[in-house]
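thought: fold this chain, then report.
action: predict
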Amino acid sequence: MRRDLSAAPGTVQTLWLDSDVLRGNLLGDPTRRRIDVYVPAGHDGRGLPLLVDLVGFTAGGPAHTNWKSFGENLPERLDRLIASGAMAPCVVALPDCFTKLGGNQYINSTAMGRWDDFLLQEAVPFVEARFVCGGAGRRGCFGKSSGGYAALVHGMLHSDFWAATASHSGDAGFELLFAAEWPRVLRALAKTENSVRTFLERFFAAPKVKGDDIHVLMNLAMCATYDPDPESYMGIRLPVTLDTCEIIPERWANFLRWDPVSLVEQHFEVLKRLKLFYLDCGDVDQYNLVYGSRRLHNRLTALDVPHTYEEFPDDHSSVDYRMDKSLPLLAAALG
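observation:
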């Protein structure tokens, strides 16, 4: 629902990209991918910065261009911010990176697929060529939750590609995020004789998706992302023992090396190249992400990495309004 009826509406064009790098992914996900692209009113995209929306778990880019009750979708938010002068005009791409396991962390995985390569080698160049926008020093990414995680990690790994990133409630502090979840996963798998395959087959066949099962699915997807086993069904192996829920050190180590709190120790110098490294989190985030965010903020400060960190009085849910802060900052940094 549009909040500013006087704001001139931009256009949203839908592109389709046939990916080469996603071919042969273990999940059997489609390689033909939709990318919605927002262009501000009065522009054709030429010469504008490019922002890429990395949507969180259980969704894909086109979810942010859908009509939304009691709130704005992303194009409506952009229309309002740009019309008011709060934000400079930008092209914004919203790629569909949804997977059969419910979402994406936007890194390469032998199970989930080469999603890092998809963004950097295919999706962004495809959009930039079509709209003559972005380019070196003028492209950034942003996201919330899993998408916020992607913004953190892509900033650390690809500061030569992205010039600015913004993370809302991004995954960080993995032992706090996942520790309480493994017993839930084991209880769910116990109902299927500890079979991941049976659990997933029942999930995919169910007439109604249950919230508890979504959380189990999310943790299985993390296994396929951070510690994939190509010999297992959909690449999934757990980092805990099935009977006693004890951490398997070598499995868990593969998770932790992808934790932004760990990654920053190896990649802090390249973060100093970014024009903006923004992160925020709700102070009562129900997934404990505020503690990981504080840890990351403290290390960035100690390592003299320029960044913006904010906490706000809310939890993890329905916090798209935080884009009113990040999007203008990104546009200003890339302008």
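thought: worth noting. The chain has two domains: 11-172+259-334, 176-256.
final: tokens above.
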